[in-house]
From TrEMBL:
InterPro entries for the chain: DUF1468 (IPR009936)
Organism: Humitalea rosea
Domain DUF1468 residue range list: 13-151
Full protein name: Putative tricarboxylic transport membrane protein
This protein's UniProt keywords: Membrane, Transmembrane, Transmembrane helix
Pfam families registered for this protein in UniProt: TctB
Length: 161
């Protein structure tokens, strides 16, 4: 089977991702286990990242062997212009999180970021985005706080949650 040059480059990128997954798996195996962790130890997230990177690498290898994915980028003659409004909203979301997280806590800061990022991706329903973002952020906070025992800062909602 002969691969065109762009598919070979795609295969090289896929093999690189597989290599990163193998490296991540190796590093996850050397994380020292502590008897202080009852439910989820410190190696859970590294193992999760390693498995996901390996799965991504396998998927990219399969896509590359089927002809690759970067040829669609080469075929684009007239790319769309840069959407500066969307980039500005993404940047505003990052700034909002940075500015609010210390003062108001994770839930409010991440919810504000969620609403701004949703607007950057074209959402025109800020109230819906606010409700979804708040639900996701509260769930994430509760999982960190209750399941992992890590306080990521509830801020002014700390007494409520």
């Amino acid at each position: 089977m002969t691969l065109r040059p762009s598919a070979r480059a795609d295969l090289g990128a896929a093999v690189f991702v597989l290599g990163l997954g193998i490296l991540a798996m190796w590093q996850a195996m050397v994380v020292p286990a502590s008897p202080l962790y009852g439910q989820v130890g410190p190696s859970f997230v590294p193992y999760l990242v390693a498995v996901l990177m390996l799965a991504l690498g396998v998927g990219l290898c399969l896509a590359a062997l089927r002809g690759g994915w970067s040829h669609t980028l080469e075929d684009m003659q007239n790319p769309a212009p840069t959407n500066w409004r969307a980039l500005g909203l993404l940047f505003a979301g990052l700034l909002a999180n940075l500015a609010l997280i210390e003062w108001l806590g994770f839930v409010i800061a991440a919810t504000a970021q969620f609403v701004l990022v949703a607007a950057a991706f074209g959402s025109r329903r800020p109230l819906r985005d606010l409700l979804i973002g708040a639900a996701v952020c509260i769930a994430a906070f509760m999982m960190f706080d209750r399941l992992l025992g890590v306080n990521i800062g509830a801020g002014i909602l700390e007494g409520v949650l």
